[in-house]
Amino acid sequence: MRAGVFAGDSLWEIVLEMDKDILSLLADEGHSFSKGQRLIARFITENYDKAAFMTAGKLGKTVGVSESTVVRFATELGYDGYPGMRKAMQEMVRSRLTSVQRIAVARDMVGDENVLKSVMSSDEEKLQSTLEEIDRESFQAAVDAIVGANHLYIVGMRSSASLASFMGFYMNLLMSDVCLIHDTTANEVCEQIMHIGKGDVYVGISYPRYSASSLKAMQFAKRQGATVIALTDNDHSPFAQESDISLYAKSDMVSFLDSLVAPMSLINALIVAVAARQPQKLDETFGYLEKLWSEYEVFTTVES
Q1: How far apart are CA 40 and CA 226, in angstroms?
Q2: What's the CA gap between 294 and 100, in Å, rounded?
Q3: Less packed terminus of the chain by CB within 10 Å, N or C?
Q4: How confident is the model over 167-186, as pLDDT tens digits?
Q5: Burial profile 186-223: b = 16 or more Cβ within 10 angstroms, e = fewer
Q6: What letters, b where the CB count within 10 A reaches 16 and e where it falls short, cover 224-247?
Q7: How far, in Å, are 39, 43, 109, 255 from residue 104 at the CA level?
Q8: DSSP secondary structure letters along 76-128
């Protein structure tokens, strides 16, 4: 067994090692496993998408070994305990799971627990993790770029389209040259941003599973010389690899849907920060809007 292979490595290094070697490692070194370890290895090999989200106790019960055997297996394999192995496996499979696999795993994770509590607690954890890990300098750089943009383009496909629409709605109230790109094919998106260039800012929003069309549009914008901002989940997202500025928010709910709570909160913060940079314009804009809303009876009056 290769003890220490993963200990001390960064999370992404662990993920890369898992991605390349974990299944072959289990197969190659199977001869040195005990009977209980072979049961664990076989289950992980055949059901890694489910194993990645099991506790040590549940994994042990599933394969018929003790929890301590599972913990020792993870340690001997080179991880810093079972939580380290499980986290690395989750990072590996998270962006690969199909919707059917996500639904199956979600059922296992929630079980008979209160769904409302389980989902909202998970979202709360994502908000806290995002707040703790966000890079303040990158956030400020994104605000500076947006405030100074000649034109602001906002792109989000599939589930991220709702985020892009929300951001576009409020940025359009704060800026005069905002273009919200509609959720469509890569070629059609490029047609919508064909005039993008130096001095413009492109905001690409995508979370696992990443949108291929949105990524191609981001690559086009970058080639045209625009400043590219990625709103995504981590620095190994394909969107982060293409961006000039990246902002990360946690979005890793294992289900047929993506948790967008933390990304939405991040967008809220961006909007407020951009507004705070131009207080006089903000006052003038909303003073004018209030007159328009009143004149055209945009809102329903609530009787006291």
Answers
A1: 50
A2: 48
A3: C
A4: 999 999 999 899 999 766 66
A5: beebbebbeebeeebbbbbbbbbbbbebbbbbbbbbbe
A6: bebbbbbbbbbeebbbbebbbbbb
A7: 22, 16, 9, 8
A8: HHTSSSHHHHHHHHHHHHTTT--HHHHHHHHHHHHTTS-HHHHHHHHHHHHHH
